[in-house]
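Pinned message: reference record for Amino acid permease
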Amino acid sequence: MKKFHHPIQDMAVRRQKINIKSGKGANLSWWQLSLIGISSVIGAGFFLGSGLSIHNAGASVLISYLIAGISALIVFAALAEMTVNDPQSGSFRTYAKKAYGESYAFVFGWIYWFAGLMIVSSEITALSTFTRFWLPNVPLWLFFAGYACIGIGVVLLGVQDFGTIESYLAILKLSALFAFILFALLVLVGGKSALFHSLSVHSPFQAGMFPNGFTGFWASMIFVLLSFGGIEIVGLTAEKLRDEREVTKAGYTLVIALVIVYLLSILSILLLAPWKAISSSESPFVTALSIFRIPAVGGIFNFVILTAAFSTMIGALYSMTTVLAALAADHDAPKLFDKRSKKDIPVFGLLLTLVLLIFVDLLSYILPKSVYEYLATASGTMLLLNWLNIILADLKNRRTYAEEHWTMPFQPYSGLIGIMIITLSIIGSVFHRQQRISLIFTLVIVFLIMVMYWIKKKFQQRTYQE
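Predicted structure (tokens):
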């Protein structure tokens, strides 16, 4: 009879090896990891980009968020199953290599890194833009450089301090969203006013569930899925948990909390904001609250968006440097990027990120603004490609796990459903011009990564022959 090993016991042994190598132990609780995930996921993209989703899909955007939540749950379940049964410091990139080989893992590892770079760039740009709300005369590039240095400084503090800061920022964002939901509930309860009657007549629900047809709903899916982008940080940070068995608790809490908060927030916007007033040029939260002429509402939500962008930025910084260190440890990047500080942070990976961010800052002034926006949007498409990679890797790797330790339910059907939703969402992006061009950018970046792999193999062959 084939002997299976207990995954939790094996995980403890492997974790010990990982910690011996890094010199650091685990020090995060499961709820801290959940808050880190929430803080990394809920960014300026949700507070600003949800307006575009509502504009495209109308009231059917609620269906979009429900489907996206199911997809995120499937992706995390796949990642959790691999993490519990085979804990690895490289997370999904290492699992991809075990499943489909070196070249596949090389491509997807670098895809995630490039996506992280563009996410960080776009979030810093959002931070800089919204800070000028209070300081309009300060140059944008100065804010960009300042936030880049502050973000890298936070990550250099180490995972414990980084986790504490992310936890506080997550609580702040959740508090703001729940306050908005509560306000909408109070308006609904006292809905006999003439203003509420006017809102009811002009609400998105009055325009029908699909005001722009099914194609509008379809085009909204990719933007909604991007609202869940960043849940991968749970897998990348899992080795820092005090109790490795709680990774599934942390992840499921994260995804379920996101689904509930997103659905209630979007429903509140649909109840408060007139249909024609919602656009992609302004946060729908600000649009909804401005109707009631609440004093300083612009400044309040501007601050909330700032905290959202900052927390997402530092979460992406941590994730991309962790993946770069894994690439370096596996000889898919210069070994220098796996060198760590006393607090177990890959400092040279952060230094490379800072240099590239400065380059992106300069490039954004040379290239048209629209091109920069397309590059930022392309990061979302690459994140969805990584979601596909996680599900595909789990479908292959789970064959090596003991059946009694499979943690992803309804397999392989749930995995196939997740693949179908993500693939159709990417295809649906052709209905939106910006996303069409972003797809082209994504293909170009994937091609460049494949060229990088070809150069690497040629160099290795030449070195071996010599």
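Pinned by admin. Summary line: The chain is about 75% helix and 0% strand.
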